[in-house]
């Protein structure tokens, strides 16, 4: 396998905030922790966590996902008061969602033992399944490349009656689920490992599972060797432990709103964008009342849908039914930090951006801010695509840019732009030379002129035949080249996104088997966010 680093840039869709974060430039870095990971761990040593209760929750969840012994052993490390966590997370996408989900999980699993060795303390990799999210359209589909190289969307379309946390949404429509699996199988085609992939999907995804439990089982199976711990926040015991966090959100609304507003102004003053745009009256939490609904402030009261609560009533509801409460995007990292000794948080470009907004509230709740690192980005170029890129010296930036400009460059190289003019010049020159020769050589026998005319007619016919074949070949070459380039773009930059943000990992697992997951683990550098492209030579 050949690796090639790709320089992050605005051309590739990265924001200036993210680029400055990667480069360590101010003012971006001022919105994140200035402490080292070692310093963060020392601060966490002084913070109390409900470790026994968290370990019990993690065991219960991971055993239900049939997690491997390595993951269960990692959970027990949290009983050590010096242990800390490295977190990554993602939504519970259908059939595992995009490949970046698996990549992020493997990255934190690989980082944990390295950090543990450096810090001389246990470091546990925990993958946060975004089970409280209710955005059904974000998780109900996945993408594969079909056997013709086209992008195919696989979808489970039966939505819940009301917007609900995905931890509650069951895959209850058996026919719809079977249809999605059949579409998945059709897109993969028959390969050496297709049957294994489909067997695993059917073991994990059934009508008795929710999006979250099915996803958890699949992730546990794919990462069995690497000691990855899975966590779903959609858990009544976890929510009960988080009562102080939610109580703080309810009781400190004015201060919360003030510090978040000030941080937003600072980010915008620095010339950066706001990843999360909030209404002025947003309370930064959700409550499940006939569906997951955002909470809004109304003077000293709160509204949830069409219902109004006093602060006291909200606190009473929290005390009685904490499982109804969940954070929003800005307060979720703090929710995590209240439950777990989080030393390191891995995130993608969007997450890094909203961390910049939400980090400001950690001090308000007297919680230690984790060190943030960017997730790696990896794309895999299969043999035919790597060969095409080598043949025409194609850079990834060209694939991600103006594709027609790339096609024109290649066509110009393979077929000169003035070929048509040169061909007409050739015909004219042949005619001129033939006419000159005829005039100079046939004066002694004018009777040959008729034969000369017939001869040139044959020459002209041959030239026209050659012309037809030449331009037909050019047209076919152009069409073939255009099709190959568009397939290359679909494989590496599908629908205008990096490959790992769109394609399901099954595209490669069906072709290379579980060996591909091993390649992914070996290839990922959790502390070098990339992006990078890896050429696969194996067939």
Task: Produce a short descriptive summary.
With 539 residues, the chain is of the alpha/beta class. It has 23 helices and 15 strands. It has two domains: 2-242 and 325-377 and 512-535, no CATH class; 383-497.
Explain how this protein is built.
By secondary structure, this protein is an alpha/beta fold. It has two domains: 2-242 and 325-377 and 512-535, no CATH class; 383-497. It is 51% helix and 14% strand. It has 23 helices and 15 strands. The protein has helices at 16-23, 37-45, 51-64, 69-76, 99-119, 136-139, 174-188, 194-204, 211-222, 236-241, 243-251, 253-269, 311-320, 332-339, 349-358, 383-391, 396-400, 403-414, 419-441, 448-492, 499-502, 506-512, 515-523, and strands spanning 2-5, 84-90, 123-129, 141-145, 151-155, 229-231, 282-288, 292-298, 301-304, 307-310, 325-327, 342-347, 371-374, 378-381, 532-535. The strands form four sheets. The chain has a five-stranded parallel sheet with strand order 6-3-2-12-13. Helix 7 (174-188) runs antiparallel to helix 8 (194-204) and helix 8 crosses helix 9 (211-222). The radius of gyration is 31 Å and the shape is elongated. It starts with a strand and ends with a strand. The mean pLDDT is 93.
